[in-house]
Amino acid sequence: MTEHVLCKRMIFLLHVVAMTLVLNFGKPVAAGGFLSVVEDLPLMDGLAEVEGSAMIFSTLQGRIVEVSATSISGNRIGRENVLGFYEHTLPQLGWAPAEALNWIRENEKLSLTVTVDVDKLIVQFSLTPN
Protein backbone atom coordinates (compact mmCIF):
# COMPACT_ATOMS: atom_id res chain seq x y z
CA MET A 1 0.00 0.00 0.00
CA THR A 2 1.23 3.48 -0.77
CA GLU A 3 1.96 6.00 1.92
CA HIS A 4 -0.83 8.23 0.57
CA VAL A 5 -3.43 5.46 0.95
CA LEU A 6 -2.22 4.72 4.48
CA CYS A 7 -2.46 8.40 5.39
CA LYS A 8 -6.03 8.61 4.05
CA ARG A 9 -7.02 5.50 5.99
CA MET A 10 -5.49 6.90 9.17
CA ILE A 11 -7.39 10.16 8.72
CA PHE A 12 -10.65 8.26 8.18
CA LEU A 13 -10.01 6.21 11.31
CA LEU A 14 -9.29 9.39 13.27
CA HIS A 15 -12.62 10.86 12.11
CA VAL A 16 -14.50 7.75 13.23
CA VAL A 17 -12.81 7.66 16.63
CA ALA A 18 -13.25 11.39 17.21
CA MET A 19 -16.94 11.37 16.30
CA THR A 20 -17.47 8.36 18.56
CA LEU A 21 -15.84 10.21 21.43
CA VAL A 22 -17.89 13.33 20.80
CA LEU A 23 -21.21 11.55 20.51
CA ASN A 24 -20.72 9.10 23.35
CA PHE A 25 -18.22 10.35 25.90
CA GLY A 26 -17.17 13.91 25.21
CA LYS A 27 -18.23 16.79 27.30
CA PRO A 28 -17.41 20.41 26.63
CA VAL A 29 -14.52 22.02 28.45
CA ALA A 30 -13.82 25.74 28.65
CA ALA A 31 -15.40 27.75 25.86
CA GLY A 32 -13.90 30.49 23.74
CA GLY A 33 -10.23 31.14 23.19
CA PHE A 34 -8.27 28.69 21.08
CA LEU A 35 -8.11 24.95 20.60
CA SER A 36 -5.74 23.28 23.06
CA VAL A 37 -3.81 21.37 20.38
CA VAL A 38 -3.71 24.03 17.65
CA GLU A 39 -2.79 27.15 19.56
CA ASP A 40 -3.62 29.60 16.77
CA LEU A 41 -6.99 28.11 15.77
CA PRO A 42 -9.77 30.04 17.54
CA LEU A 43 -12.98 28.66 18.95
CA MET A 44 -16.07 30.60 17.94
CA ASP A 45 -18.02 32.05 20.86
CA GLY A 46 -20.57 29.47 21.88
CA LEU A 47 -18.30 26.50 21.07
CA ALA A 48 -16.27 24.52 23.58
CA GLU A 49 -13.58 21.95 22.88
CA VAL A 50 -14.73 18.44 23.70
CA GLU A 51 -12.64 17.01 26.51
CA GLY A 52 -10.60 14.01 25.38
CA SER A 53 -11.33 14.51 21.68
CA ALA A 54 -7.86 15.69 20.67
CA MET A 55 -5.54 13.29 18.89
CA ILE A 56 -2.13 14.21 17.54
CA PHE A 57 0.16 12.16 15.32
CA SER A 58 3.51 13.15 13.88
CA THR A 59 4.55 11.90 10.45
CA LEU A 60 7.54 12.59 8.27
CA GLN A 61 5.32 14.93 6.22
CA GLY A 62 3.98 16.84 9.24
CA ARG A 63 1.44 16.59 12.00
CA ILE A 64 -2.04 15.10 11.92
CA VAL A 65 -4.42 16.63 14.44
CA GLU A 66 -8.07 15.81 15.10
CA VAL A 67 -10.11 17.70 17.68
CA SER A 68 -13.80 18.40 18.18
CA ALA A 69 -15.85 21.20 19.63
CA THR A 70 -19.52 21.29 20.49
CA SER A 71 -22.03 24.04 20.98
CA ILE A 72 -22.61 25.08 24.55
CA SER A 73 -26.27 25.91 24.00
CA GLY A 74 -27.45 22.99 21.87
CA ASN A 75 -27.63 23.56 18.13
CA ARG A 76 -28.83 27.17 18.43
CA ILE A 77 -25.53 28.54 17.09
CA GLY A 78 -26.39 27.26 13.63
CA ARG A 79 -24.21 25.59 11.03
CA GLU A 80 -24.19 28.67 8.79
CA ASN A 81 -22.95 30.89 11.61
CA VAL A 82 -20.09 28.51 12.38
CA LEU A 83 -19.08 28.31 8.72
CA GLY A 84 -19.34 32.08 8.34
CA PHE A 85 -17.16 32.65 11.39
CA TYR A 86 -14.37 30.40 10.10
CA GLU A 87 -14.65 31.66 6.50
CA HIS A 88 -14.11 35.19 7.85
CA THR A 89 -11.54 34.42 10.57
CA LEU A 90 -9.21 31.84 9.02
CA PRO A 91 -7.88 34.06 6.19
CA GLN A 92 -6.88 36.62 8.83
CA LEU A 93 -4.69 33.90 10.37
CA GLY A 94 -2.94 33.06 7.11
CA TRP A 95 -5.26 30.27 5.92
CA ALA A 96 -6.18 30.40 2.22
CA PRO A 97 -9.50 28.90 1.14
CA ALA A 98 -9.22 25.69 -0.85
CA GLU A 99 -12.13 23.42 -1.73
CA ALA A 100 -15.33 23.58 0.35
CA LEU A 101 -14.65 23.65 4.12
CA ASN A 102 -10.89 23.31 3.57
CA TRP A 103 -8.07 25.80 3.99
CA ILE A 104 -4.34 25.66 3.22
CA ARG A 105 -1.52 27.35 5.13
CA GLU A 106 2.14 26.67 4.39
CA ASN A 107 2.39 22.88 4.32
CA GLU A 108 -0.84 22.11 6.21
CA LYS A 109 -4.47 21.57 5.27
CA LEU A 110 -7.34 22.33 7.64
CA SER A 111 -10.71 20.68 7.13
CA LEU A 112 -13.92 21.39 9.03
CA THR A 113 -16.93 19.15 9.38
CA VAL A 114 -20.03 20.62 10.99
CA THR A 115 -22.72 18.19 12.11
CA VAL A 116 -26.02 18.84 13.81
CA ASP A 117 -27.19 15.85 15.84
CA VAL A 118 -30.65 16.45 17.34
CA ASP A 119 -29.79 19.08 19.97
CA LYS A 120 -26.02 19.24 19.55
CA LEU A 121 -23.86 21.03 16.98
CA ILE A 122 -20.43 19.40 16.54
CA VAL A 123 -17.43 20.85 14.73
CA GLN A 124 -14.63 18.46 13.79
CA PHE A 125 -11.26 20.10 13.03
CA SER A 126 -8.77 18.03 11.00
CA LEU A 127 -5.27 19.26 10.36
CA THR A 128 -3.11 17.22 7.96
CA PRO A 129 0.04 17.67 5.91
CA ASN A 130 -0.70 19.23 2.53
List keywords for this structure.
38% strand; 130 residues; 8-stranded antiparallel β-sheet; alpha+beta; globular; 8 strands
General description of the model:
- This protein has 130 residues and is an alpha+beta fold.
- It has one domain.
- Helices cover 25% and strands 38% of the residues.
- It has 2 helices and 8 strands; from the N terminus they run H-E-E-E-E-H-E-E-E-E.
- The chain has helices at 3-24, 79-89, and strands at 28-31, 47-50, 55-59, 62-71, 96-97, 102-105, 108-117, 120-129.
- Strands 1, 2, 3, 4, 5, 6, 7 and 8 form an 8-stranded antiparallel sheet that branches.
- The longest helix is centred in the N-terminal third of the chain and has 22 residues, at 3-24.
- It is globular and about 40 Å long.
- Mean pLDDT is 82; it is low at 20-31.
Summarize the helices and strands and which ones pair or pack:
Elements: H1 3-24, E1 28-31, E2 47-50, E3 55-59, E4 62-71, H2 79-89, E5 96-97, E6 102-105, E7 108-117, E8 120-129
Provide the succession of SSEs: HEEEEHEEEE
Q: Return residue spans where pLDDT drops below 50 for at least 5 consecutive residues.
A: 20-31
| End-to-end distance | 19 Å
Mean pLDDT: 82
What percent strand? 35-45%
Q: What shape does the CA trace take?
A: globular
- Structure classification: alpha+beta
| Rg, Å, rounded | 14 Å
Give the biggest beta sheet: 8 strands, antiparallel
**Total count of strands:** 8
Question: Tally the helices: what do you get?
Answer: 2
What is the helix fraction of residues, given as a range? Answer: 25-40%
